[in-house]
């Protein structure tokens, strides 16, 4: 790999997870980082993730072949202006923000379009900070790349090699298409979650009955409301145009549903709900990056200690490699409480046969 020295500006959840992932797959790589919080830098040095910690953006970053900008967009832009005077002409700059238009426009203004490729790892957690980073957070996640018209082919090759090495799935998009898609599938759901939680909070009685009963579906669809308020305040500003379009369309759709409920339009509601159900079911069977299908099965397991370990042991004894495991707490959403993903369809069939021999109820999906 041509990229031997990597720099990080910001070492929070995403920056820290990227750095940890790179250290795991490229142990000889030199990694240096600047972060406003010294605590994260000290922790990363103690973990062996960093070779060098920086308390400022200075000439030490001139050695970097690639630099990840992992701070808020406005901070990234300020840091990029400083880096412009330091980095080599062949150093690749990238970011990890969920909004791309603002930074692409700044890159154009600074004359750095030949050295910048936008990046957005589509993963995360309601938890924040380096303390919650882990080296496999990006595994099997889409990693969106938004190149400029001035990027060289070899830059894309190197960047994609890094993404694949840490287990993520690179997907190339125009930055404008990215921001519109993100507004609908990520930013709007967060707005809905925050609004729904505040609505329940306002509507609850003094005894907190709604809060006490809130479980299952409510917790599932509002989990993301535990995300950083500051980050989502910034996203509203950075992706305002696309988000407003999504919000207006959602409000119109919600009004139509409300009108149908009010006027007892049962056939409309049935068709509307069924259309959503079919589309949502199709999402589970999507082809990853348009090439690789998802191979998975679901099975019923008892809610008791060691249940998952037993399943893993059975599959391991049959020499069947598991790609991913996911616990489904809401059985009414999908038959089966445990989702198991494999690397190919043939393994799914073998796994289903083995588990059924042990009297598990198995639902295959390829």
What features would you describe in this structure?
The protein is of the alpha/beta class. It folds into three domains: 5-173, Rossmann fold; 178-252, 6-phosphogluconate dehydrogenase C-terminal fold (Orthogonal Bundle); 288-365, ACT domain (Alpha-Beta Plaits). 48% of the residues lie in helices and 17% in strands. The chain is built from 13 helices and 14 strands. It has helices at residues 13-25, 38-47, 73-84, 101-110, 153-165, 175-203, 209-213, 217-222, 229-238, 240-262, 266-284, 307-317, 345-357, and strands at 5-9, 30-34, 52-54, 66-69, 92-95, 116-121, 142-147, 169-172, 287-288, 292-293, 295-299, 322-327, 338-342, 362-365. Strands 3-2-1-4-5-6-7-8 form an eight-stranded mixed sheet, with helices on both faces. Strands 12-13-11-14 form a four-stranded antiparallel sheet, with helices on one face. Strands 9-10 form a two-stranded antiparallel sheet. Helix 4 links the parallel strand 5 and strand 6 (116-121). Helix 3 packs parallel to helix 4. The longest helix has 29 residues, at 175-203. It is globular and about 65 Å long. It starts with a strand and ends with a strand. The model is unreliable at 285-291 and 330-336 (pLDDT under 50).
Overall shape: globular
Strand tally, please?
14
**What order do the helices and strands follow?**
EHEHEEHEHEEHEHHHHHHEEEHEEHE
Oligomer: single chain
Estimate the helix proportion, in percent. Answer: 40-55%
In whole angstroms, the N-to-C terminal distance is 34 Å
Question: What is the CATH topology classification name of the largest domain?
Answer: Rossmann fold
Number of helices: 13
- Number of structural units classed as domains: 3
Provide the structure class.
Answer: alpha/beta
Catalogue the unreliable spans. Answer: 285-291, 330-336
What is the radius of gyration computed over CA atoms, rounded to a whole number of angstroms?
A: 23 Å
Average pLDDT metric: 89
> Strand portion, in percent?
15-25%
